[in-house]
Design brief:
- The structure is a single chain.
- The protein is an alpha/beta fold.
- The protein has nine helices and ten strands.
- It has a six-stranded mixed beta sheet. Strands 2-1-4-5 form a four-stranded antiparallel beta sheet, with no helix packed on it.
- Helix 6 links the parallel strand 7 and strand 8.
Length: 237
């Protein structure tokens, strides 16, 4: 059985010489839901961008047993669904249907299968009636759901989300939490939203200044207020 995500001794420096990640090692098992937390500039976004080959550092990154490399990018990106912080970075078609169909279309699937994937993905995010709607007319919460549907239509094995609750009102936030709880996928989610972490993720990984400083049960790490404070985090009230 392969690990869903296997990172060994990953180091990455930006062209200006700033080291964003330093010797990160992390294993995530199939079906695990893991929160990635830390202050701004900790390296969270840099880390997740290695998981589908947008960035390439020194070290080893494997997804579902496959080494992430130039040769495997197509297969890796089909297995790793990445949902960015701003849904507007993912929604660019005239209709919701076209956005959700984009991945399967790019994969060369037949028309009937594309239709099936779109319907299934919109149903999974409780947006079945939205196929003919115009994406940029939707609320932020609706757009986030559609952005997740665009990724689900590729039938990934791993879901990566960057700050998924940012900009959501309380109702949309609760709705998104319930959606993510029900999705039977391996998840790595970068977030500042500590109540969200406590609510949904059994495991928490803390990054700070490019280093992995803690990795354990969320309930245990949340009790360690000294650790949280040292890395710019607060336990939810």
């Amino acid at each position: 059985m392969h690990h869903s995500i296997e990172i060994e001794q990953l180091t990455y420096s930006y062209p200006d010489g700033h080291t964003a990640l330093s010797e990160i090692s992390l294993l995530i098992q199939p079906g695990e839901k893991v929160a990635l937390v830390g202050p701004n500039g900790a390296g969270k976004s840099t880390l997740i961008l290695h998981l589908n080959g947008i960035l390439t550092g020194i070290g080893s990154v494997r997804v579902c047993g496959l080494e992430v490399s130039k040769e495997t990018l197509g297969r890796v990106r089909a297995m790793v669904g990445m949902v960015f912080q701003s849904p507007d970075d993912q929604l660019f078609s005239p209709r919701v249907f076209d956005d959700v169909a984009y991945g399967p279309l790019y994969q060369g699937l037949p028309v009937e299968m594309i239709q099936e994937r779109v319907e299934k993905s919109l149903a999974a995010v409780a947006m079945s009636g939205y196929a003919q709607r115009v994406s940029h007319h939707l609320s932020t919460g609706e757009k986030k759901r559609i952005a997740i549907a665009t990724v689900l239509s590729m039938e990934p094995e791993v879901l990566i989300l960057d700050e998924p609750t940012a900009g959501l009102d309380p109702r949309a936030r609760r709705s998104l939490i319930n959606l993510l709880r029900d999705l039977p996928l391996t998840m790595l989610v970068s977030t500042h939203d500590m109540p969200f972490v406590e609510d949904l993720f059994p495991r928490m990984v803390i990054l700070d200044e490019g280093r992995l400083v803690a990795d354990g049960q969320t309930s245990d790490l949340m009790e360690n207020t000294q650790l949280l404070a040292a890395h710019g985090l607060e336990r939810p009230n």
